[in-house]
Write a structure and sequence with these properties.
Layout (H helix, E strand, L loop, with lengths): L18 H7 L9 E7 L6 E3 L7 E3 L1 H14 L3 E6 L19 H13 L4 E6 L12 E3 L2 E3 L1 H17 L3 E4 L6 H11 L6 E8 L6 H7 L19 H13 L3 E5 L5 H10 L4 E5 L1 H12 L5 H15 L3 E4 L2 H6 L4
Parallel strand pairs: 1-3, 1-4, 1-12, 4-5, 5-8, 8-9, 9-10, 10-11, 11-12
Antiparallel strand pairs: 2-3, 6-7
Helix pairs in contact: 2-3, 3-4, 4-5
Length: 331
């Protein structure tokens, strides 16, 4: 058998020989300040309720959350994204509790900003699904989620978050025109410095199941395919991005992340705005389940997933793995 010798000048493996060399020339990197930790807030001061479908994630009262965030901040998590629960018995067809000044999110924002000021970036999810009696993200008429009448409720929620001190408001409802409506309202109220991070590209995904358990936001009937994006479409996502940019979005988002890396790349190539990828609950829980069964190694799997999102073009990573990554010293 003839032996083939590789010319010394063609040896790419030189740059893969040791961990130190590989780290030196790595093209894609993750830093703690790129990670955003989501939290679910209960309408009470104290409390911690495990979420069965999301191991390691809990529903927390406002004071409990503040203590948890302080611990996370020491790890290097400098940004949080808040989702709220309304008090029992307050869900209505219009989701009025989403804008209540004394709501869980509003109280949590005020507490976090008072405690940590600009040391922490406080982001809030702006949606109605956890607050409506029917579980949809907008008003419903004759079985259909109505776009334009929903905007006033979304604007009211966003304003209440900004009034409480939120640094970033993030509408996730996918109603047409909501970015412009919220931006105009924020500016008119004097909140010109509040950042608007739009869930620009949010697909009607099966990966949201555990989140709906956590947020108690499963639709009473029907689904969200008339307003969230069709999983078969990519070009449509670019149209959504263009509209949100024109309407005043400061940061864009693609959700979910792992099954939509091609979309993240397409959006990245279309805009220079900061781009977030949401590593959603189903993606998180699937890894946790596989790890619990001994099928996957958690550290290497989580890092590979997050690196894939960064490699595709995401600047920011919204992930329930953030605490594990930093507490474990995985970076």
């Amino acid at each position: 058998m003839m032996t083939v010798t590789t010319p010394d000048r063609f040896r790419p493996r030189r740059l893969r020989r040791t961990p130190a060399i590989r780290d030196l020339v790595a093209e894609t990197r993750i830093a703690a300040n790129q990670l955003i930790m989501p939290h679910f807030v209960l309408p009470k001061a104290r409390g911690s309720e495990p979420i069965a479908s999301m191991p390691g994630i809990e529903l927390q009262g406002v004071d409990t959350l503040t203590e948890r965030v302080e611990q996370d901040l020491a790890l290097g998590i400098r940004s949080v994204l808040l989702f709220g629960h309304p008090p029992a018995g307050t869900k209505t067809p219009a989701g009025d509790a989403a804008a209540a000044a004394g709501g869980a999110v509003q109280r949590a924002v005020a507490a976090l900003k008072e405690r940590f000021a600009d040391e922490l970036v406080v982001m809030t999810d702006v949606c109605l699904c956890a607050y409506t009696s029917h579980g949809h993200c907008g008003h419903v008429a004759a079985g259909y989620v109505v776009n334009d009448s929903s905007l006033s409720s979304l604007v009211a929620a966003a304003l209440s978050h900004a009034d409480a001190g939120a640094d970033v408001v993030a509408p996730s409802d996918m109603m047409d025109g909501r970015v412009a409506a919220i931006r105009d309202a924020l500016d008119a109220r004097g909140h010109t410095n509040v950042v608007l991070m739009s869930y620009s590209v949010k697909y009607a995904s099966a990966y949201y199941g555990p989140f709906r358990d956590a947020a108690d936001s499963t639709p009473e009937s029907g689904d969200r395919r008339s307003y969230q994006m069709d999983v078969r479409n990519v070009r449509e996502s670019l149209r959504e991005v263009e509209l949100d940019i024109a309407e005043g979005a400061d940061i864009l988002m693609v959700k979910p992340a792992l099954a939509y890396l091609d979309v993240i790349r397409a959006v990245r190539e279309r805009t220079e705005l900061p781009l977030a990828a949401y590593n959603v609950s189903g993606e998180y829980s699937a890894v946790k389940a596989a790890v619990a069964n001994g099928w996957l190694d958690e550290r290497t799997t989580v890092l590979e997933n997050l690196i894939a999102m960064r490699r595709a073009g995401a600047d920011l990573l919204i992930t329930y793995h953030a605490r594990d990554v930093l507490a474990g010293g995985w970076l």
